[in-house]
Amino acid sequence: MQLNIGDFAKMIEFSLVRPDATEKDIERFCHIVKENNFATACVNPVNVSLAAELLKGTNIDISASIGFPFGSHVPEVKVLEAKRAIEMGATQIDMVINIGALKSGKNEMVFKDIKAVVDVSGNAPVKVILENGFLNDEEKVRGCRMARDAGASFVKTSTGVESKYLLQ
Fold this sequence. Notes:
globular; cytoplasm; DeoC; Aldolase_TIM; DeoC/FbaB/LacD_aldolase
């Protein structure tokens, strides 16, 4: 199967999750997403409404980053973030797994965290971000299995943030 550039672009999830992103940055970002017909625009929950407005009438999904960047929010906060993001126009949810709980072997806690976000997200696909730079192979496997068992649609390897914190 051969892909052309347009087909390839429709597979890209383009992200702007910087904490200093301004309204002008989101406008420029959405223009790029729209111009290239990317599959998904990933933004922080605070920017979902603006992205939804700017991408209205397109087939581009809007994904909200929940528990970003380290998954260290309590489950109730992640649930509220996901619920509000969907109300504001998110069509997908990217949630960061509770990295510390996974590393501590608290499987039930991690599973319930993921499951709660999946349940509140309804038909919106939930993508679980493992943040592999902090995990060993066994933890990655456990994280994937829990995401699958909790009903997540996908697993992602990284937010792209952890490399900054792994440098010594």
